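Supplementary Note 3. Input sequence used for the single-chain structure prediction.
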Amino acid sequence: MKKNKLKKFISWIWKTTLKIVLFLFCFTILQVFILKYINPPFTPNVVWEWGEAIVKKQPGKRPKYNWKNIENISPHLRRAVIAAEDQRFLSHSGFDFNEITNALKTLIKRKKLRGASTITMQTARSVFLLSSRSFFRKIAEMYYTILIELFWDKQRILEMYLNTVDWGTNVTGAQAASQKYFSKSAKYLTPPQAALMTAILPNPHRWSVHRPTPYLKTRQKQIMKDMHLIPLL
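The predicted structure, written as discrete structure tokens, is reproduced below.
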């Protein structure tokens, strides 16, 4: 009798787990498919920061998020982010295995961890996931990266990235960043401005466009050189 109950309980667990997995699979596919055509009104991090500002009664810290279609974002910025963040963006399928290999070599030789995230991976992170460093989030990021590359073209991926990437404290996306740092629309950024804005992306909460360090200035110059090698999307 006890064995039969145990078997039924195990069977129920398996069936329930399978239903949950199937539901999540269908839900995430629908998510990515819909966002191929509809611009997200917010991101998980924007909602989180908005909620924090309300709870702490700090309206001045509410996140700034303003969607702009890709044709209304400076071509210099489009080239700059590809040049700085993911030069093989147009040729890979979401994962840059050359960069992953180089990151592993650096880790083995120098005991130093370096990033190997592509623009697609960063887009998956910013559009669908909350900021964290958990193992689960990394798996979810990889899963969403595969779906994004299956359903979206490269122009849509870049458009999503530019509009949802974290560009500093309470600043999400190119338009909000351009307004904050240069008091102008993202459409009118010059090459030096686009390169400097892109230069802070690896650590936008520590580095400042208004107070660029010698390292940031050097990085800006290198990005400007590399921009000429990137075709326009």
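The longest strand covers residues 64-65. Residues 35-227 form a domain with the Penicillin binding protein transpeptidase fold fold (CATH 1.10.3810.10).
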